[in-house]
Amino acid sequence: MDLGRLAVTLPAARVSSLENVDLARRAEKEWGYEAIWLAETNGPDSASFAGAVAMATQRVDIGTAIVPVYNRTPALLAMTAATLAELSKDRFILGVGSSSHAMMEGWNGLTFERPLAHVRDSVAILRQALAGQKTDYAGEALHSKGFRLGTRGPVPRVYVAALRERMLELAGEIGDGLILNLFPAEALPKILAAYRRGAQRAGRDASNDEIVCRLMIAVTDDVAGARNLVRAGFAGYFAQPVYNAYLRWYGFEREADAVADAFARGDRAASAAALSDEMIDSIAILGSAEACRERIAAYVAGGVTTPVLAPLAGGLAGVTAVFETLAPGRSGNG
Predict the structure, then answer these.
(1) Rounded distance between C-alpha atoms, residue 239 and residue 255, angstroms
(2) Beta bridge pairs of residue 204
(3) Is residue 27 predicted with pLDDT exceeding 60?
(4) Is the peptide bond before 285 cis (omega within 30 degrees of 0)?
(5) Could you give the C-alpha distances from 182 to 29, 51, 143, 163, 187, in angstroms and in order?
(6) 169 neighbors 175 (Cβ within 8 angstroms)
(7) Alpha-carbon distance 171 to 143, whole Å?
(8) What average pLDDT does range 219-242 have in this prediction?
């Protein structure tokens, strides 16, 4: 069974920073994972955590999935990426994206507008800086002139996260790889077609690009209970405009309407209940270890190269159990 380049997502919720670094070490040395992809929400920031992970590991790729382009300037992103590429000895991948209204406007007090332009301009400025050039760029959303990195080392890859068609095409045009999240495997042909259209438009062959996909996963006999964990954790995501439109784009219009309406009324219970069993089973991987492996393999068969396991489990013991059970080399994982 082909499970691709199995990777893990960190930091885990309700786990200390030091324990998360130890999970990274174990993911490489004990469990044999190929990469560690760092999520950034309201826990450890990706830059600090990636530096610690780089010092604790020797082989695995270390990537951000993702850091937003709104709350870091391109110059700062370039400094961060260059530093982490050097510390990791060329194992670092900078994954960028637009994030969401809730995080950028609600949490950070920024204006979430023109996401395509912000991503395009950020990556263009990054490319100049990481190439050792003095920046000279004026775009629709951002500009930079006269900045030059004060350090030279490995040039990190830059991957772009995307949800719908226009951002997928942009990712294909300007990225070195693609980062995906929260979608059914059946949507992969449409997703990858849009990404490759963008690459073709830029005269780039994307057929061998890395396709990174974070997969929400629970190895469990209680599938109904796991579905409720998804409802509790992700109803708020799908109420946000960007994810609500994404949900609609891949065929769950009824759920998209219901979750947004309930969230707007302030009815969080109804918002969670609006996520149907069918929808949850299409975007999350829930069940026995063998059933989970089969679903991961379906994503790989559809074109995902790097499935990233994101356990639907709180606390160190629950996260460790998922990583151990699905570790590369375990029975059924090869």
Answers:
(1) 10
(2) none
(3) yes
(4) no
(5) 29, 27, 32, 9, 11
(6) no
(7) 20
(8) 94
Q: pTM for the full model?
A: 0.95
**Residue 277 in 3-state DSSP?**
helix
The segment(s) of the chain belonging to CATH 3.20.20.30 are 7-216+302-325
Q: 48 Cβ partners below 8 Å, 6+ apart?
A: none
Structure tokens at 70: 């709104």
- Quick one: pLDDT at residue 334? 56
Which DSSP letter does residue 44 get? S
User: pLDDT by residue (tens digit) across 185-203?
Assistant: 999 999 999 999 999 999 9
Answer whether 125's CB lies under 8 Å from 75's CB. Answer: yes
pLDDT at 87 over 60: yes
Q: 7: closest CA among 308, 320, 325? A: 308
The pLDDT tens digits for 321-330 are: 999 999 997 7
The residue count for the chain: 334
The structural architecture, per CATH, of the domain 7-216+302-325 is Alpha-Beta Barrel (3.20)
Contacts by 253-260, CB closer than 8 A, 24 or more apart: 255/279, 259/235
Contacts (Cβ under 8 Å, ≥6 apart) of 239: 259, 260, 262, 263, 264, 271
Q: DSSP for 100-152?
A: -HIIIIIIT------HHHHHHHHHHHHHHHHTTPPPEEE-SS-EEES---S--
* Helices 188-201 and 289-302, packing angle to 10 deg: 30
Contact 126, 81 (CB under 8 A): yes
